[in-house]
Amino acid sequence: MSDKRLLVNIPNALTLLRIVLAFFVLFFLTASQSQKAVYWGLMLFLTAAFTDYLDGALARKKGLVSRFGQIMDPVADKLLIILTLSAFCYLRIIQGWMVGLIILRELIITALRIQALSGGRVIAAKDAGKIKTFLQMGAIMVLFFVLIYTTGNTFYNYSQGNMKRAIDYLMLIVVLVTIISGVSFLKEYKKVNKG
Asked: Does domain 3-194 have CATH number 1.20.120?
C-alpha cells in the first residue's frame, strides 16, 4: 500500500480528528465559562482520548502502520494534553510554570522522537513515559471535575482552600514524573543514536 493511500486510512483519519478535537476542547473551556461548555469540553476530551487508543489498535491489527501515523500520532497526543492544560492555566486553576515545564518537555521529546523516526529509528515508549501519560490524563480528568463542581459558584476562589492545595500537589507530582520520563527518554535516545 502506497504512502498516499496510507495517508487516508482510518487510523490516520482518527489522528487528524484528535488534533481537531483538541482545539475544540480549548475553545469550550475558554470561550464560555458555563457548566454546559465544560461538559462539552469533557466529552470532546474523552472522545479524543478514545481515538488515541482506537487508531493505534486499528493500525496494529490491520497492518496500517505508516510513517505519517508514527509522526503525527504522538504530535496529536501532545497537542491534546498541551492545549487542555493551557486552558486550565488560562482559567487560573493550575499554575503557569507547571504547564510551561510540561510543554517544554513535550516539545523537546516530540521533536527528538520525530528526528529519530526520520532516520529510521523507532524509540518505543518506556514505563516512565506510560506512567507520565497516565498521570497527565488522570490529572486532566480531576481538573475537569473540579471545574464542573465550581462553575457558577461565585463564592469559590481557586487561590484559597484545600482544593487548591490538592490541585497544586497533584500537578507537582505530574510535573516531576513528566521531567523524570523526559530524562529517561533522553537516555534511550542517546543509546539508540550510539547504536
From this structure: yes
